[in-house]
């Protein structure tokens, strides 16, 4: 039987400034799904990239006094470099201004939609937000301002190419309502269906070359126009697979893949769940099977934004606090629906309470007790561990709970299933009190050889069974934790795997973190 094939993509961000934590959230979520599917035997392609051909990038380069390509290259490199600090298992990265696959694919896609009779040119006047790179109607604005950026859109009047989105109204509704194109969570699906029910209008898919400052991909056969950045950017999901340049990747990862999943923020849902499927229908290509939507990260209630001033640098955050605390906060704190407000206090508290005190303490106590009571040699249980039902149950049900949660794009619920094992294992230690079994075995009754006077099912046998159960639980935790915290999982495995018959000396799985001092100094240790 052929393993299921999954194509996972993130959005490709504008590179008008350094990356912020909001994009790191999407990268980490995609990485968890990619690792999860791989560990279950699936074939996975995890793709990300950068959106270089935006007017926002041009204006930011001009403000910085730097040539556009140089500016874009420098910032794009910072996005690509996130793979290492965030421990990402990315398979491919596409840059829309540099990658030779992209322009040819975008041009081919344009011609495919033109051949379907869905492109036409007309004069248009409207309110355009450069920050969103989209037109708004008066009704969509908030007191005349962009609902996302708080700025007044520019009034633009020019002749552009348009796409016949209205032609696909009924088809899109049916595809989404039937979940042929599955949108998660349900609140976002309902939002899209409501938008479609309000009536779909054709939308502009080009900009004058003058207004675009000559930056972008020219419209095939019309050098006076540049292809709209969103049309250009959405095409990356195909162009990175050789759409336009050939090869087998398009068939393998798009046309015949079992799952084609886009991870997106709620601010770009309309583009991915309405415009993009309609464009694919026009071009005669397969549709995404899933659009998984996350809400915003905020700081002091303000949406994280590269241009809006509210930002948190994920690379700097990892450098100070470590990869695992940052990934863990993103996966444990961010709800399935609703924005999440980031603070250093929450990051440090979550890492200390769970990674250091909960997980780290469990592994350290287990390895330390095996060293203390069995000279570091992992015991072999010759009897069932006493009172281990709750721990066994948490372990047995974890895989199914994690699988169903991730299928629903619910990272909080998935990590909670892992954490149930940690909690039960710590409760188990406090309940069975291995140190008292050791005291009864060697202290109260003296030294009596391998099993003492109580035999293998007495205190000695019970202690072996308890220690073996705890060590197995640590391995189980590492196995289930690996998609979420691959680095921590590797450290647990190293701690709990014998070398030449003995476990390594115990070392912290996660060091405790501290907040910066008022003068900016910090004693925080990374993982």
From TrEMBL:
InterPro entries according to UniProt: Anticodon_Met, Met-tRNA_synth_2, Methionyl/Leucyl_tRNA_Synth, MetRS_core, Rossmann-like_a/b/a_fold, tRNAsynth_Ia_anticodon-bd
Pfam family, one: tRNA-synt_1g
EC number: 6.1.1.10
Enzyme class: ligase
GO molecular function: ligase activity
Domain Methionyl/Leucyl tRNA synthetase: 141-366
Region (Disordered): 499-527
SUPFAM superfamilies: Anticodon-binding domain of a subclass of class I aminoacyl-tRNA synthetases, Nucleotidylyl transferase
Keyword Ion transport applies: no
Keywords carried by this UniProt record: Aminoacyl-tRNA synthetase, ATP-binding, Ligase, Nucleotide-binding, Protein biosynthesis
Family (UniProt): Belongs to the class-I aminoacyl-tRNA synthetase family.
Protein name (Swiss-Prot/TrEMBL): methionine--tRNA ligase
């Amino acid at each position: 039987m052929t393993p299921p094939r999954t194509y996972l993509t993130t959005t490709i961000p504008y590179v008008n400034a350094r990356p912020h934590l909001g994009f790191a959230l999407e990268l980490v979520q995609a990485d968890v799904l990619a690792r999860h599917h791989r560990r279950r035997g699936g074939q996975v392609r995890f793709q990300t990239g950068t959106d270089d051909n935006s007017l926002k990038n041009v204006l930011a380069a001009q403000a910085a006094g730097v040539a556009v390509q140089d500016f874009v290259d420098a910032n794009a490199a910072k996005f690509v470099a996130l793979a290492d600090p965030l421990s990402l298992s990315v398979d491919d990265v596409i840059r829309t201004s540099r990658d030779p696959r992209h322009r040819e694919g975008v041009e081919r896609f344009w011609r495919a939609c033109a051949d379907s009779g869905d492109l036409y040119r007309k004069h248009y006047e409207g309110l355009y937000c450069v920050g969103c790179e989209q037109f708004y109607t008066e009704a969509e604005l908030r007191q005349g301002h962009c609902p996302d950026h708080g700025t007044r859109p520019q009034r633009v009047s020019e002749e552009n190419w348009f796409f016949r989105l209205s032609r696909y109204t009924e088809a899109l509704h049916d595809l989404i309502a039937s979940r042929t194109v599955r949108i998660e969570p349900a609140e976002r699906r309902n939002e899209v269906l409501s938008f479609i029910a309000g009536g779909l209008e054709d939308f502009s898919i080009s900009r004058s070359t003058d207004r675009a400052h000559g930056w972008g991909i020219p419209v095939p056969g019309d050098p006076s126009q540049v292809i709209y950045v969103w049309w250009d950017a959405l095409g990356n999901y195909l162009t990175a697979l050789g759409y336009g340049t050939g090869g087998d990747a398009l068939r393998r990862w798009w046309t015949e893949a079992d799952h084609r999943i886009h991870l997106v923020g709620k601010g770009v849902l309309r583009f991915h769940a309405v415009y993009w499927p309609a464009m694919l229908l026009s071009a005669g290509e397969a549709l995404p099977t899933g659009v998984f939507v996350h809400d915003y990260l905020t700081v002091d209630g303000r949406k994280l934004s590269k241009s809006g001033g509210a930002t948190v640098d994920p690379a700097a955050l990892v450098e100070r606090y470590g990869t695992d605390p940052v990934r863990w906060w993103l996966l444990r704190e961010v709800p399935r629906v609703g924005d999440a407000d980031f603070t250093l206090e929450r990051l440090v508290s979550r890492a200390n309470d769970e990674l250091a005190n909960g997980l780290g303490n469990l592994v350290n106590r287990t390895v330390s007790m095996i060293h203390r009571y069995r000279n570091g040699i992992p015991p072999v249980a010759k009897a069932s561990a006493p009172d281990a039902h709750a721990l066994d149950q948490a372990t047995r049900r974890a895989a199914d709970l994690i699988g169903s949660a991730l299928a629903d794009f619910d990272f909080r619920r998935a990590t909670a299933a892992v954490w149930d094992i940690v909690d039960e294992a710590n409760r188990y230690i406090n309940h069975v009190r291995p140190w008292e079994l050791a005291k009864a075995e060697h202290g109260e009754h003296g030294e009596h050889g391998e099993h003492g006077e109580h035999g293998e099912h007495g205190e000695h046998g019970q202690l072996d069974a308890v220690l073996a159960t705890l060590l197995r639980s640590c391995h189980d935790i590492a196995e289930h934790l690996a998609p979420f915290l691959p680095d921590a999982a590797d450290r647990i495995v190293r701690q709990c795997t014998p070398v030449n018959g003995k476990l390594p000396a115990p070392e912290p799985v996660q060091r405790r973190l501290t907040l910066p001092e008022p003068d900016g100094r910090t004693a925080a240790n990374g993982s």
